[in-house]
Amino acid sequence: MHADSMDAVFRALASKSRRRILDIVKDRPGCNVNHVAGHFEESRINVMKHLRVLEDAALIHSEKEGRTRKLYFNCVPIQIIHDRWTTQYSALWAGRLTRVKYRVEEARVPRPKPIPGRKYA
Q: What is the rounded CA–CA span in Å between residue 37 and residue 78?
């Protein structure tokens, strides 16, 4: 991936609205612009501008079908960036540390206190 392409991906991901659009398209592959625009208070034109930035960064792929465009999420540019700065070794440890993080967070959830004198199975 060229530096310019990588810059385009980072620019596209820098916007909260564009990240939300990616979530919407990822959750509903093949959706159209109207579906995406329905999730925003912004104008349809603004949403289309965001989609153009995402397409330019190759994070969204669109296919024209009649008068509508079907939208699909493309995770490849993000994976390429991830692969650039991680190795198999660091990915292994990152995964393990992530699991530890989730366990610690689960342990923080307050549990009901046992009632004195009551036996639990």
A: 24
